[in-house]
Amino acid sequence: MMQLNFVDSHCHLNFPGLAEQLASIRENMANNQVGHALCISVNLQDYPQVLALAEQHENFYATVGIHPDYEDIPEFTVEQLVDFAHHPKVVGIGETGLDYFRLTGDLEWQRERFRKHIRAAKQVNKPLIIHTRAAAVDTIRILQEEQAEQVGGVMHCFTESYQVAQQAMALGFYISISGIVTFKNASDLREVVRQVPLDRLLIETDSPYLAPVPFRGKTNQPAYVRYVAEEIAKIKGISLEQVAQSTTSNFFKLFLPHL
Ligand SMILES: [Zn+2]
Ligand SMILES: [Zn+2]
Fold this sequence. Notes:
Layout: E1 6-11, H1 22-31, E2 34-39, H2 47-56, E3 60-64, H3 78-85, E4 90-99, H4 108-124, E5 128-133, H5 136-145, E6 153-155, H6 162-170, E7 173-177, H7 187-195, E8 201-203, H8 225-236, H9 240-255
The structure holds zinc ion (2 copies).
The site of one zinc ion has 5 residues, from loops.
């Protein structure tokens, strides 16, 4: 029988509620065949904690980036991002992108910040982790204008249309599916999952948020990425082994191509 191996491609294990539980979180991962997790940075202040997780645990990796929802924080430069990103356990740049849902008004600063991340990613030749909410048109446009296809990346926690998925895939991006796919009202997303080829899919938890059914509303953790994979298997009418094998090999192809 095939040994399953899942990867949680997006989690925030340094956040309160998870950071104190790390031992049990790692045990639950092992018990659910979740072999690796990518710890995502959301601002430069928290970045040392995110990096420490990856330095202390062989099966954790880190990213560096400033989330679009952080409005009043000190500015940073492309060079700063590049410096941090040279670390061997930093495998991607983000999360970055646009969020016109949480913030409104003149968001030119968000678009500028997004462009800086793409430029840094191209300098270090590492893929991007993209957050987009109520901003798909501008997100795709900026990825195209900045030639993000040179590095590719992932559209994390994807909830957009198949058309947007196609535009992202045309730029070499992967589509990452979260626990939202298990929610009752997510039939549109399930239809997108049905259409996106298996060789473009990743899975994630976005822990501590978005716990899948049957844990909806509770604190999420990487072990639960298995429920996302089970839902994808059901939607596509394929085995859980196939989902595990493809999403894990997609993850390593994107983030650790030299392995
Ligand atoms: Zn996000
Ligand atoms: Zn996130």
